[in-house]
Amino acid sequence: MTPFDYARARSEQDAVARVKDAGTKYLGAGTNLVDLMREGVEVPSRLVDVTRLSSRIEPTDGGGLLIGAAASNTAVAEDAAVRARYPALARAILSGASAQIRNMATVGGNILQRTRCTYFLDVEGARCNKRQPGQGCDALEGFNRGHGVLGVSPACIATHPSDMCVALAAFDAVVHIAGANGRRHVPLVDLHRLPGDTPHLETVLELGELITAVELPSQTITARSTYRKVRDRASYAFALVSVAAALEVAEGRIADVRIALGGVAPKPWRAREAEATLIGAVPGQSAFVAAAELALAGARTRPGNAFKPELARRTIVAVLSDLAGAGQ
Amino acid sequence: MTMRTKDHHMPFVSSPFVTRRDVLVGSAATAAGLFLAEPGLATSLPNAPARSGLGTAYPRRDGPLKVRGAARFAAEHRFPGMVYGALVFSTIARGTIRRIETEAARAASGVVLVMTHENMPRLAPPEPFYASPTGMAGSAIPVMQDASVHWNGQPVAVILASTQEEADHAARLVRVDYEVAEAVTRFDDAAVGAPVAFYAGRDLQYRDGDAEAALAEAEASVDLEFSTPQQNHNQIELHAVTVAWQGGVLRMHDCTQGVDLSAITIAKVFGLDPSQVHLTAEFVGGGFGGKTLWQYHILAAAAARLAGRPVRMTLTREGVYRICGGRAPTRQRVALGARLDGRLTALIHTGTTMKIAQNSMTEPFMEAAEHMYRTDTMHLEIRAGVRDMLANTFMRAPGAAVGTFPLEVALDALAERLAIDPIELRIRNEPEVDPTTGKAFSQRALVGALREGAHRFGWQPRSGERLGRREGEWLVGTGMAAAYYPYKRFPGGAARITLGQDGRAVVELAVHDMGMGTGTATAAVAADRLGLPYEDIEIRYGDNRLPGNMIAAGSQQMAAIGAALTAARDALVAELAALVPAGAALHGRPAEALTTRDGALVLASDPATRMPLADLLARAERREVSAEAAAPPPSEAKEWSMHSTGAVFAEVRVNAVTGELRVSRITGVYDCGRILNSTLAASQFRSGIVMALGMALMENTLFDERSGRIANPSLAAYYIPAHLDAPEIDVAWTGIPDPEAPSGARGIGEISMTGVAASVANAVYDATGKRIHDLPITLDKLL
Amino acid sequence: MTITINGQPYDLPTDARVSLLDFMRERLDLFGTKKGCNQGACGACTVLIDGERVLACLALAAQYDGRSVTTIEGLADGEDLHPLQALFVKHDGLQCGYCTPGQIMSAIALSNEFSRGAPSSVTTDLDVPATPNREEIRERMSGNLCRCGAHNGMIEAITSYLSEHS
Question: What sign has the CA pseudo-torsion B523, B527, B533, B536?
Answer without folding.
Answer: negative
